[in-house]
Amino acid sequence: MILLLAIAIGTLFAGAVYLMLRRSVVKLILGLVLLSHGVNLLIFTMGDGVRRAGLPIVDSSTGIAEPGTTDPLVQALILTAIVISFGLTAFIMALAYRATQAVQSDDLDDMAHTDRL
């Protein structure tokens, strides 16, 4: 299972880098989305590994979780990363829409020479 996830993470990173090196703004945004999904999957894999474990419930008398439970910190980090990547994607899409309206082109080379706008 870990090998399958490693291949999936590598494929997501490779696809993200390929798309981010293209000239289109839409492909740049799609590359950033793929990169964020790859990072989320990497954090998930690096956390506890992929295994079936118990619920992350802490004993109220001792304040310590039982051994063999999952780590809730990894889940919280991934949830936070999903929310941040969604906000960043929405912001980049708004900027790309406005830049495309101003330049009348989707090409990043055309947007490089817009100092006069």
Output the keywords.
4 helices, 117 residues, Helix Hairpins, mainly alpha
Summed up:
This protein is mainly α and 117 residues long. The chain has one domain (2-52, 69-109): Helix Hairpins. The protein is 67% helix and 0% strand.
Largest beta-sheet details: none
Structural class: mainly alpha
Would you tell me the overall average pLDDT? 85
Instruction: Tell me the helix content.
Output: 55-70%
* Gap from first CA to last CA: 52 Å
Level-2 CATH architecture: Orthogonal Bundle
Say what the CATH topology is: Helix Hairpins
Q: How many separate structural domains?
A: 1
| Rg for CA atoms | 20 Å
Q: How many helical elements?
A: 4
User: Approximately what portion of the residues adopt beta-strand conformation?
Assistant: under 5%
The helix/strand series, from N terminus to C terminus, equals HHHH
